[in-house]
User: What shape does this take?
Amino acid sequence: MQMTLLRTARRTLVAVVLLAPALAFAQGTVQHLSGTLSVQRPDGSVRLLSEQSDVKVGDVLSTERESYAQVKFTDGGQLTLRPNTQVKVEGYSYDEKRPESDGFVMQLFKGGLRSLTGLIGKRGNRDAYRMRTATATIGIRGTDYSAIDIPQPPPGESPPAGSPPPGVYVTVADGQVVFTSGNTDQFVGVGQTAYSASFSLPPALIPAPPNLPQVTAPPSFGQTLKPTTINAGASLECIVQ
Assistant: This one.
């Protein structure tokens, strides 16, 4: 019995050692930062991030007031977070040689962001990319889009004067997204805005509210939100729009 337990312990130790590099692998890097960005790791620890800090699966990223952050992922995608935004990297899988294994799932808890999608969702499974929000799920068809979550006011309070109705708004700058709520898919194209008030109600195309917050990165971030050429295989180049 003792020898069996010892062999089991050794196999477990070897497995942990082999798995450690994968667990430590960074899926993204903080490319630009203006203000304060913090991360809560899966173990519950919280720390401040800086430019060139790693971003990994399970991380919850939070920007503070008047803070912007931009994260670049290994598939070439970029995510720009506006102030008072919180997102979680729920899942990420990208292997240059295995497009069938691609997967990217994020959750927007609050605030707003702009996403310039990378290869995930473009070179294999078109449903490999998902952004979850409070009222809907966003899928992509190769795109540059913004998502803004306008929260419900606290009980007994009214929304600020002139603010858009609470809910999630998606605006597309390039490509197309599929915006899903109430078991209904709404395709959103270039220049269009869609709105979802609840997970139980279908989304709808609407005129963009004039007072909808925008995701405009500081000039210090430079012109990073542009199409980027990255290697998509031995003989294939992909232009990330």
Q: What stands out?
A: The CA atoms of residues 193 and 208 lie 6 Å apart.
